[in-house]
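Supplementary Methods S3. Complex input for the adenosine-5'-triphosphate-bound model.
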Amino acid sequence: MTAPSSQSTEHAHEQAYLDLLHDRLDTLCTEIRGDLRTALRESSGTAQGQVERGVVAERLARKLLMMEAAENRLCFGRLDRAEDDRLYIGRIGVSGAGDDDPLLIDWRAPAARPFYTATAAAAQGVRLRRHLHTRNRRVLRVDDELFDDTAGVPDDVQLSGEAALLAALRHGRTGRMHDAVATLQAEQDKIIRSPHAGVTVVQGSPGTGKTVVALHRAAYLLYSHERLQRSGVLVVGPNSVFLEYISQVLPGLGETSVLLSSVGSLYPGLSASAGEPVASAEIKGRLVMADVLDRAVRARQAAVTESVDALIGGEHFRLSRDFLADAAARATEGGRQHNLARPEFRDILFEELADRLARVIGDIEVGFEEILAGEMDVQALDLAVQEDLAGVFGQDAKAYDFRAQLPAEFTERKANWLHALPRDRDAQRLLDSLWPLLSPEQLLDDLYADPARLAEAAPQLEEEDRALLVRERGAPWTLSDVPLLDEAAELLGYDDHAETERQAARRAAQRDYAQGVLDIARGSRDADDHLHAADLVSAEQLAGWHTQTDLRTVAERAAADRTWVFGHVIVDEAQDLSPMTWRLLVRRCPTRSFTVVGDAAQSSDAAGATSWREALEPFFGTRWRLSQLTVNYRTPGEIMEASRQVLKAISPELLPARAVRHGAEPPRCTGTTPEEFPAGLAEAAASAARRAAGGRTAIVVPTADLERLAAAVSARIPDASWGADVDLERDVVVLGVRQAKGLEFDSVVVADPQGMLDGSTRGLSDLYVALTRASRFLHVFHAGPLPEVLSHLTQDPS
Ligand SMILES: Nc1ncnc2c1ncn2[C@@H]1O[C@H](COP(=O)(O)OP(=O)(O)OP(=O)(O)O)[C@@H](O)[C@H]1O
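Predicted complex, serialized as structure tokens:
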């Protein structure tokens, strides 16, 4: 810390520098707005010119957004290496007016690295590291660390910028995660800047900053790999509540090329949230389901056990099993997907039908013509028709070679039938029954609803496992259906109809995006800036300029497109992913450039991984490297102690992380009878909220009991929020234990720990998650006896 006498001088000095930075940023923003206006104003020129201007406008708008996002806490650090060698570190880089050195270094630039990694033992040439605490454009305080290379302090007890870090951690929770660019720690920085290619796995116990690392890594990769700005980064989180919790971090860092998605939303157009039994979720997560779906699709491709009779154009036909099998094989040649193979199959089928129809009708008509001409008697006609029908039904068809007899008429008739069949209802019905156009939803719905189909598609599954998959047609989709729908989409391929709809949606989105660009231009107008973009051009005009350039952000485009290929995928709480979900994610990033963060001890999903090797090897082989985070920033040592036995029961090999914070009150532990539990919990909630004193409080309950217990708490605290759209910014929230994953609160009541243990086969992990959410106060409130794993807690005297 700086000495008090020098604080005011240093403070004034830093305030002057911050003023200089903001002045420069204002100037740059004004310039960009001017350029944006110019780009928007120019509406004439060649199509190519318009496209280029669109690209320029998009880039300028993005740059402006990034600069505006950096306004608060623009500069947070300074590194002094020598008397006249000083760097200021901030959220973005800011250049000077001339060719001088930059005024501010982006935190992601290599030169900024020692700010995070310099330690007393390895100062890396740094003499002083200064943290600037600012709010808006004001410097509030400065914290200094002086380095002396001879100090010889061991690295493992070093926190970088400890005073600033502890100050950041002391802030009450707000219901939203904030970025940590100013106080990232060396072990986090190392992972954030690790190479982009391959798979980086980050294991860490609760509160070690895994989510922090994941999000800052996304921002770092986008900064250092230009290509990723175009392909985008996908960040996958466990559920929508968690996504809401982290939603402000990356926009706060000015990044728009990141798509945040829960597993339930990875299939565009669907938001799967229905619950389902653990047992069926586990089966759906197994890798074998890929084969099951493959068989299910093949079963819809003219896969008949006997010949098929059909009535087309008033005539009866029999299509042999061999003919259909051959047609199916030809249609899917080269691995053509089901829906894309349908036109091929249709052509083969209609060709055959037209051929036969031309022969039948040809024969009958020829007979009539001959009768009329007096050249053929009725008996002869009967015979001809009889033989013709015999031929049509596949018996001795060669006996009637009409091509040879009547080539011209035959060819004409056949051409007429080929023209007519696509509009013929019977022919369409036949085609649909043999080779239906299928959506992934239809395929899965048909499969689940029909035990016979399931038996045919899933002979590898035990009968009782198949029985668990059966459900009513039209039942809502669950989380574990999402990877299966995606797999089905992959097997089925796209049809024209879907493509047309996509194009229409794309056009509408282009217009919306263009409107967004105009809104940015309008919103960022200076007070004296009378002319703005919206005066010059309409959204339609702007969108029209870019018929060849999709103007939505990369994240928006990627969200709407199942086949989008991301440059990098980051998975948070990855311990919960099923093998089928991993398969989906690898499809989203075939180059297999992944950052995988999680904690094996927190695995709650029945289909999830208990060991990283088991989870990752099927998809990445041995191409992954493991990093560990070892410091817990959230949970004080006293509270972590409460979860010690639980962690041991999950696996004796797992070690808790070292807690940064200490001095919290030991956890409270009280109990009551099951009858009095809801009312008692409501009181405990009120008391926990009082202790949080304006901070955030969560009541974490067994998932199955959420409704009942939330009702009891709401009766006592009407403003408490709960449910699928729980509002994390309320003072008190009630969460099912699975919803609490990844979140944190000042004060937490863990309700009915035994109920959590009994609620799932991964009950221990659920309880561990619940116990590790608190940053200041923990209260365990139980009904009946305390579970064995918590027996070391001291009961409050009642
Ligand atoms: N370097 C840091 N500077 C400031 N705060 C930090 C830092 N690292 C982590 N934190 C804070 O510590 C808390 C825990 O971080 P985070 O949620 O990323 O941990 P986690 O490992 O993902 O936890 P969990 O496994 O429980 O979800 C958050 O409040 C986060 O902002």
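Residues 165, 168-169, 177, 180, 183-185, 188, 204, 206-212, 599, 602, 633-634, 742, 744, 772 surround adenosine-5'-triphosphate (CB under 6 Å). The chain has 33 helices and 21 strands.
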